[in-house]
Structures are given as structure tokens and as C-alpha cells.
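Need C-alpha cells for this chain, all 119 residues.
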Amino acid sequence: MKYEVSDWVQGRTVNGEFIFGFVEQIDALQGIVKVNVVKSDNERSIGKPTVVREKWLKKLPEQIEQDEASVRNLIDLALSTWDETWFMELTEQLNMLEFEASQRKGNDAADESRLSAFI
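Here are the C-alpha cells for all 119 residues:
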């Protein structure tokens, strides 16, 4: 099977609902995947697990490089799914991104002052 527990997926249910969520459980023999629905066009499905055929799902790529806005969105998602560990990881990642941004701003300001002194 091409999915693993915790993979992010999107697809359609047997009722035709669009879903986006993460894999909770896999039944390789029957070819079905239990997905915790995070977003859906059916609001009643959000936050609930649903069972979907493997072939109706698409695994989403993992993001390698993330900016502050995308990390903040993921933090909101971690809060809505009550995932404390993921929330803490994302908060640490956001703190690092903000620190790096402040370092760059400090370096840019220093470069500008050296350049103006040179001119």
C-alpha cells in the first residue's frame, strides 16, 4: 500500500464528498484507508474519521521549505486537531523563522549604514 499512518491525503468519499485530512489507519487487505477529515465540502464531516478506498485518495507532497504564513496556518490546523506535539514542533519552527527574519533585517540595516557611510 502506498500510504502510511499520518500521511496527508485528499480525495472523494463514496458519497462524492471532497475530503482533505490525514491517515489514521490502513486496511491493506481490503484496500481501505481511515482518514481523519480536516477539510471537506460537507461541513458535517470535518473533524470526523471516514473510510475511503485507497484508489480514491491522493497522497499530498510534504512541504520542505515553509514561510511564516504557512507555518501559522499549520499551527491553526494542529490546534483544530488537538495535536499538541505537532503544535509544539510548529511553534518552535515559527520561532526560528521569526528569529532568522529579524537577523536578516539587522544585517540589511547594517549593510545600508555601511553603504551610506561609504558614499
